[in-house]
Amino acid sequence: MDLVSEVLRLTGMRGTVGAQIVAGGEWTAELSDYPGIATHAVLSGGAWLVLGEGRQVQLATGDVVMVPAGTPHLLTDTPGTGPATAVPPSGDGGQVLRLGSGPSRTRIFTIHYDCNHATRTQVLDEMPDFIHVEGGESGAAYLADVVRLLGRELSRPQIGTDAVVDNLVDLVLIQLIRAWLSRRPAQQRGTWLGWGEDDVVREAVELVHADPARDWTTTSLAAAISVSRATLARRFQTAMGQSPANYITQWRMDLAAVRLRDTPDTIDVVATRAGYRSVPSFTRAFVRDRGRTPGAFRLQARQNALVRAP
């Protein structure tokens, strides 16, 4: 089972095309008013990334950086030079923003990634606050290939370019996650991604995801993968930073929250599919986890959807 793909689907992770920065000479682009996680792919040339706390990172052709949502940052030819130009949010995505007075030497493609926040099980939330994958880095060959394809499509648009770019945006995210996982296995320990470091824990998580409605307990889960209850509990805590029982509940609540928000299923059906034998027991568990009843959660989700609708 591909656990990462399943969680990305459940969370509704999506990428939105931001501005293309075409720059030369002295230039500075300010990025602060943008939705979701900002990802910048350097298609050609080079630049400096300056984070809010003053951290400076030099970028070269093929590099990709990911910056957490809501983090003000600058892209510039040289830190500390010239006035900054605000990059518009992705509502104006795809537009070309030309900066500087010199010949165009640098092209940067910006993507914004965001998801619905009804679920607690997230992939990107478990990754570090800042990710920098260099174009020639070991384990990032596929990401470099995607960046090159993006560069070709954007420099020479053809029939279907918009569709190609939309698909490449999804590939950038997947390859960025792969590249980070391949080089930072120790950082996964104690997070949701920790199952990747322990085959026993991975098998347990896969069983829960394959049949979340089954009456799983730490004991029954341990028996299903032929280890002792104590062994599973210890290794699960080390790998994922929580107990098997807590994770079973978390995943069931995530599935229930998405069904309440996105389907017309009755509370009884949602409860059954989440592995609860009665609506009262499901309601008690949901209130403990989400702070409101399933009905109140559904009502709030629908009201939020109306507010976001054009």
Q: What's this entry about, in short?
A:
The chain contains eleven helices and eleven strands.
Structure description:
The protein has 310 residues and is an alpha+beta fold. It folds into two domains: 3-183, Jelly Rolls; 192-308, Homeodomain-like (Arc Repressor Mutant, subunit A, Orthogonal Bundle). Helix content is 44%, strand content 18%. The strands form two sheets. Strands 9-1-10-3-6-11 form a six-stranded mixed β-sheet. It has a five-stranded mixed β-sheet with strand order 5-4-7-2-8, with no helix packed on it. Strand 4 and strand 5 form a beta hairpin. Helix 2 packs antiparallel against helix 3 and helix 6 (218-224) packs across helix 7 (229-240). It is elongated and about 70 Å long. The protein starts with a helix and ends with a helix. The mean pLDDT is 87. Keywords: DNA-binding, Transcription, Transcription regulation. InterPro entries: AraC_lig, AraC_XylS_family_regulators, Homeodomain-like_sf, HTH_AraC, HTH_AraC-typ_CS, RmlC-like_jellyroll, RmlC_Cupin_sf. This is HTH araC/xylS-type domain-containing protein.
Strand adjacency order, main sheet: 9-1-10-3-6-11
Computed CA radius of gyration, to the nearest angstrom: 22 Å
Largest sheet: 6 strands, mixed
In total, the number of strands is 11
SS-based structural class?
A: alpha+beta
CATH top level class name of the largest domain: Mainly Beta
Query: What is the third-level CATH name, the topology of the largest domain?
Result: Jelly Rolls
Spatial separation of the terminal alpha carbons:
37 Å
Could you name the CATH homologous superfamily of the largest domain?
A: Jelly Rolls
Measured by DSSP, the beta-strand proportion falls in: 15-25%
Q: Segments where pLDDT lies below 50 for 5+ residues?
A: none
Give the integer mean of the pLDDT values.
Answer: 87
Shape: elongated
Tally of contiguous helical segments: 11
Pfam families: Cupin_6, HTH_18
Keywords: DNA-binding, Transcription, Transcription regulation
Domain HTH araC/xylS-type: 202-300
Organism: Winogradskya humida
